[in-house]
């Protein structure tokens, strides 16, 4: 009889298979070995180098392709041997467990003092937000964002892990003892990990391969409003310059449409004389480039030369005045 809470999947140890697949991939093998060493080697009194262990774990999940890193962390299991291997993926004796459990709100405060932990915890709250009315049970309807945010916490003081070998419930190493008047707030924080249907569904969907289209990263949608978190970065894809994800692309627009795009973005009026001429546009090497209108290019209208007709008029007037003065004298 299967243990309650363990997923029904075909026979075999999927977590063992995932570990074997990692060893066959040079990148996965390299970064796995890089965290196994500091997370298992004792320094003194059987205490590991927790700081180096956490740093190496962050590199593993940041640099190893999802099919391997997620394959080891979110593999589906049918028996205790498999679920225990899954729980041991991050070497919890070093990266996760401590002699005493701190209060969860105290741990949260400690996380907020570190910019990496703080931003990744914010990503987790945003991307794994449950929603009972959603088909996926996720507010964002995207399992990939949730799994990425969850794995991003591993290697911080908020490192979560499976709490036992019989379910998909996870939690950071903390409890709500000594919460005082903040007991309700503490339970709310802890249960966001332990009883999060969005996260559980995301883990199960990845492990079973039951809904691949939901956990795969979605294409970024361009918008004129700023986003509140970073997630939502696609794994292994570098982020562009700050704010670039909200820019209106102008490389496919005609030269003078740049100003129109800027007006749409800023809701300010402008005059058409600020547009670059086609000749200046090509001369400055902007044709076909992914450029955006900037304040520098809007600082002053382009310098224009005198037209041939105006030159003739000025020359004629000058000659006429010279002849008139000669006759008078």
TrEMBL record:
Residues 15-94, 104-198 form the GDNF/GAS1 domain. It is found in: Cell membrane. The keyword Membrane applies. GO terms for cellular component: external side of plasma membrane; receptor complex. It is a lipid-anchor; GPI-anchor. InterPro entries: GDNF/GAS1, GDNF_alpha, GDNF_rcpt. Keywords: Cell membrane, Glycoprotein, GPI-anchor, Lipoprotein, Membrane, Receptor, Signal. One of its GO terms (biological process) is nervous system development. One of its GO terms (molecular function) is signaling receptor activity. Belongs to the GDNFR family. This is Gdnf family receptor alpha-1-like. The lineage of its organism: Eukaryota, Metazoa, Chordata, Craniata, Vertebrata.
